[in-house]
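Data availability (excerpt). The following record was deposited with the supplementary files.
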Amino acid sequence: MTHSTAGRPADPTTPSTAERLDRDDPLASYRDRFVGAASPLVYFDGNSLGRPLQGTAERLARFVTEEWGGRLIRGWDERWMELPAAIGDEIGRVCLGAGPGQTVIGDSTTVLLYKAMRAALAARPGRAEIVVDRDNFPTDRFLAEGLAQECGATLRWLDVDTSTGVSAEQLAAAVGPGTALVVLSHVAYRSAWLADMPELTRIAHEAGALVLWDLSHSVGSVPMQLDNWEVDLAVGCTYKYLNGGPGAPAFIYVAAHHQGVLVQPIQGWIGAADPFRMGPEYAPAQGIRRFLSGTPPILGMLAMQDMLALIDEAGMDAVRRKSVALTEYAVQLAAELLAPAGVVLASPLDPDRRGGHVTLNHPGMREATAALWRRDVIPDYRDPEGLRIGLSPLSTSFAEVRRGLEAVAEVLAAPAR
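Predicted structure:
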């Protein structure tokens, strides 16, 4: 809650409140490092595609002229072969609370989720049940459905409110001796529900199951401690809060004690023990590299290095504090500006249970989203009736949040055409 100098709550809708919040924000100067941040456009979709950093253009140009153009194929021996694991270790250190050798950059999020699900299911012989919630991201649900058909497994669906997420009580009632795998999202893509990762992992382990966490809507926004929380497997994308660019490759985390046991199902040359031997039979590499399949997408993993360095400089705890402050401010503004028009908060009110975005429900939100885009205010829409306000902590200002939600109020108040 914001406060005036007189000790009474300040009006969150006034420009002076937003200006003061920006003035007092210790991370405010980081915004200047992003392309387009100085423009009047309001960007509420950093949880779908992060803004590029200004230094990224220089990095990409330098790579083309110096490494790709200058070193040519020698680049593989000199640096490129090690990049997937090197950048993976940085993601682990900066964002995941993961020691080295457990995170690697690989394929798309979908492909890595498939690998992890298939490997986990095979590692629990005699168990044939996958637990997944109906409000998980579509890819996670679709993969679980396809894997159940492929392997003769059974799906146990958890029904959750679209404004919350999976609770400890729900999961405890669902898992049992037949559960092989639990598939969960750390932050729900629709509501921003922040799952209790250590507790849900513990519950699944007590039932003898493995857990796969989708970190796509939390990595770079919410601190975590995968090693300390005894997480088995995790996958996340890098183009949201890690600002890796459109279609940047995803990462996979595999706890060290599982790496010699899990068998990844897509056996490709780069994951072999000796990739350049081109031998007649496949033998997996030692360690995390065995979860790679094809040629690493080197260009696609360059941009995220700049954002990782920026998050490391700011510190994940400070990033989370800024994220909470932004979403709290958005919730306050919505209560003042939008609730009178019938807008309902569809995200947790408790910031400890909320990730880095806020969803606001109203029957007119689909049409409002299109109108807002025409005004250079860029949120996104998610059924049912949800306007999703994604607030990337290092590139978003409080003044931007105020301008954007004022525009939402104006669009909802405009007569229908």
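Summary of structural features: The chain has a mean pLDDT of 95.
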